[in-house]
Amino acid sequence: MPVAFVSQETFSVPSSFDELGLILALGVLSAALPQYLFSKGAQLADMEQTTMISSCEVVFALGLAWVFLGDAVSLNDMIAATLILLAGLIRYEGMPTPRDGDNARDEFSKKDSAVFIPKRSENHSS
């Protein structure tokens, strides 16, 4: 249950078009536009980069709240942010890189991207 319903005695709706406009602008600027931009960016980047960036949202929010709002950062917050960043670095550094002439990664990506059906040989001995 939202805190607003519990903490206030009455429920109020916007009484003017100015208030309604501010509420709509808040919804568009804080929810719809960032989600749209993230979706468009995710189409341009590969899946691993997108996942790593989205997992760092918590760290960015913590840092921006500290810088712009003067929010206190506790030891638990710092530990959590460090663990998130370390997990991203471990995942990023742990990815194998293909060597020259190594087609194993290409074969894996072909199998992983679609249903793998082995080719049948055309030689039919009768």
UniProtKB/TrEMBL annotation:
Pfam families for the chain: EamA
Q: Check the UniProt entry and state the signal peptide residues, or none.
A: none
Question: Keyword Membrane, does the record have it?
Answer: yes
InterPro entries given for it? EamA_dom (IPR000620), EmrE-like (IPR037185)
Tell me the lineage of the source organism: Bacteria, Pseudomonadati, Pseudomonadota, Gammaproteobacteria, Vibrionales
* Annotated organism of origin: Grimontia sedimenti
* Keywords associated with the record: Membrane, Transmembrane, Transmembrane helix
The UniProt entry's coiled-coil ranges are none
Q: Which residues cross the membrane?
A: 20-38, 50-69, 75-92
Name of the protein in question:
DMT family transporter
Q: Which domain of life is it from?
A: Bacteria
Query: Which parts of the sequence belong to the EamA domain?
Result: 2-87
GO cellular component entries: membrane
